[in-house]
Specification:
Length: 336
């Protein structure tokens, strides 16, 4: 793979095992915002319509056009592009080094922007990879994230008549290194406050929301998030912790409480120090850096919160890399 590029080197290799890190993806320029949004709103695992080949394409085009300007403001504030590509690539390089003894290649695969699943599957087939570990960078399973990544990978394999031995990882939020990394990051970030006493800092664990309807249909995402929060709290012993949800869109009822409502309520109640950890994310991107780090920081100031900080996602934190390496080794353990 070329660092920072979209194209994979398709030269044949003797390596037989590939690890595919699946992530959401994000536009790499402001010009890419609208096509990125079209890809997102075209996902049949998130948005389901009758006569989908016609109606879904129209829906995706209309919503992408309507949301382009607002989304572009967020990416412009981040320098004109999403950092998720570079952050995920850093994770891939670190993981490949950690697994050097396996002689495995780590690929980045993005659901809605380059390198898209079709590109990655083509590279895997051209490279002669017979075993693939499909490892989503979503610790908690949801059809809208892990399920969508898996379904698209299967579709693209079928399209190219590629039939590797695939080990699918569904959820991994219980990994101890992952949880320890979160706890350590929160403790480090708390030192930024003028009064760095956990008893005086309100900790918000913010997860990406999903519609309540999806949970009612049996999606286990909320259960995974709540269990992650419980396990992190066990490690921290933090006196004031609130689990909340962000990034809702549209008129549907989403998982509550909403993070903006929590910030308003706590500000009005006199809380003057808030620390936010993005508990559903392992890669910093627009939801962590712009939504939490800028938009809600402004809201916190408006309601009287004196100090507000967002903990960075784990990104290439050694604890996360250890967790991912353990997951891969476990998936391949019968061949070790």
């Amino acid at each position: 793979m070329k660092r920072g590029g979209r194209q994979y080197n398709a030269v044949m290799t003797s390596l037989r095992t590939a690890i595919v890190l699946c992530n959401l993806g994000g536009p790499d320029s402001l010009a890419a915002v609208e096509p990125f949004l079209r890809n997102l709103f075209s996902d049949p695992d998130i948005f389901k319509f009758p006569l989908a080949p016609i109606t879904q394409r129209l829906f995706a085009w209309l919503v992408a056009r309507r949301r382009r300007e607002e989304a572009s403001r967020g990416y412009a504030a981040l320098g004109g592009a999403s950092p998720i590509g570079a952050n995920t690539q850093d994770q891939a390089w670190a993981l490949e080094q950690s697994l050097a003894d396996l002689e495995a290649r780590v690929f980045v695969c993005m659901r809605y922007w380059h390198p898209l699943t079709a590109e990655v599957v083509a590279a895997l087939k051209a490279g002669g990879y017979r075993r693939v570990v499909l490892l989503p960078l979503y610790p908690q399973y949801s059809l809208t994230t892990t399920g969508s990544a898996r379904n698209e990978f299967v579709r693209q394999c079928a399209r190219l008549h590629y039939h590797p031995d695939v080990r699918f990882i569904e959820s991994w939020y219980q990994d101890p290194d992952y949880l320890d990394g979160i706890a350590a990051s929160i403790k480090t970030a708390a030192a930024q406050f003028s009064a760095p006493d956990p008893a005086r800092i309100s900790l918000l664990l913010s997860a990406h929301g999903v519609p309540q309807r999806l949970i009612a249909q049996g999606d286990p995402y909320r259960m995974g998030i709540e269990e992650t929060a419980r396990l992190v709290c066990e490690r921290l012993g933090w006196p004031q912790v609130t689990l909340c949800y962000q990034s809702r869109v549209g008129p549907l009822e989403w998982l509550r409480p909403y993070v903006d409502d929590v910030i308003r309520d706590q500000g009005r109640a006199g809380v003057d120090q808030i620390l936010v950890y993005p508990i559903a994310f392992v890669s910093d991107h627009i939801e962590t850096l712009y939504e939490l780090g800028m938009t809600y920081a402004g809201l916190a100031r408006e309601v009287g919160v004196r100090e507000y900080h967002v903990v960075p996602a784990l990104n290439a934190h050694p604890a996360l890399i250890r967790a991912l390496a353990r997951i891969v080794r476990h998936a391949l353990k019968e061949e070790r």
